[in-house]
C-alpha cells in the first residue's frame, strides 16, 4: 500500500516538473530574443554612425575654412544629420535668389551628396534629403509676403539647384519653409538674427526617428 502511494506521488511530480521546465525554457528564449533585438539595434546604430562619419569626413575635407568659421555647421540628431549654412553667403536680404558664393558652395554640396549616396562597404548611406529654410523674426518689407513664404522660396531655390544643376533624384528631396518659428538662438538683433537666418540640409538615414 505504501509503495503504491509513493509511486502515485512520483508520477504526480513529473507533470509539474515538466511545466516548470517549459516555463524556464520560455523565459530563457525570451531573454535570448531580447538580447538579439538589442544587439541588432546596436549594430544598426553603429552602421548609421559609420555612414554619418563618411559624409562628415568628405565635408571636412572640402570645406575646412567654412566649418572653422561656422559658415557651415554639422550636427547629428539620431537618424538625422544637419548641415547648416549661414544665410549671409546664400541670399541677400528679403530675396530668394542664390548669390554666386552661396551657389558655388551649394553646388559642391550637391555634388558631394550625389557622389556619396552609396559606399562600397556600407551600401546606401542616406535615404533622403530635407531642405529647410529659416528666417529671423524681422518682418520682410515686400507687400503681401511673409517670412514663411520667404523661407519656403529659399528652400525651393536650393532644391531646384540640386535637381536642375546636379541631377539629384527629386524623389529623394523635400523643401520646407519654417519662417521664424524654429530659431536656434533667441532673436537678438546682433547675435541671434544672423544665426537664425539659415538653410539646413538634413540627411535622413532611416525611416524611424532614431535607433535607440
Distance between the termini: 64 Å
Order of helices and strands: HHEEHEEEHEHE
- How many H/I helical runs? 5
C-alpha Rg, in Å? Answer: 28 Å
Instruction: List the uncertain runs.
Output: none
* Helix-strand makeup class: alpha+beta
Q: How many DSSP-defined strands?
A: 7
Helix content: 40-55%
The largest pleated sheet is described as: 5 strands, mixed
The main sheet orders its strands as: 1-2-7-5-6
Residues in β-strands, percent: 15-25%
Mean pLDDT over the full residue set: 87
- Spatial shape: elongated
Descriptive tags:
50% helix, 212 residues, alpha+beta, single chain, 17% strand
Topology:
Blueprint lengths: L1 H61 L1 H5 L3 E6 L2 E7 L13 H16 L2 E2 L3 E2 L3 E7 L12 H20 L6 E5 L14 H5 L1 E7 L8
Parallel strand pairs: 5-6
Antiparallel strand pairs: 1-2, 2-7, 3-4, 5-7
Helix pairs in contact: 1-3, 3-4
Explain what the structure shows.
The protein has about 210 residues and is an alpha+beta fold. It has five helices and seven strands; from the N terminus they run ααββαβββαβαβ. The strands form two sheets. A five-stranded mixed β-sheet has the order 1-2-7-5-6. A hairpin with a 2-residue loop joins β1 and β2. It is elongated and about 85 Å long. The mean pLDDT is about 85.
